[in-house]
Specification:
This protein starts with 13 loop residues before the first helix and ends with a helix. It has a domain of 28 residues. The chain is built from one helix and no strands. With 41 residues, it is mainly α. 66% of the residues lie in helices and 0% in strands. It is elongated, with a radius of gyration of 16 Å.
């Protein structure tokens, strides 16, 4: 348990996992934007 005020999310796989999560979030937001645009067209 982390002390209060020291809460940090540690992604699986360290640095590589962190980069993977960033890449996944970017990809997910792009896909979501494309899907919304297709639905609103």
């Amino acid at each position: 348990m982390a002390p209060e005020g020291q809460f940090r999310v540690r992604p699986l796989g360290g640095g590589a996992g962190c980069l993977g999560m960033i890449a996944f979030s970017i990809l997910a937001s792009v896909l979501l934007t494309v899907i919304v645009n297709l639905l609103l067209r």
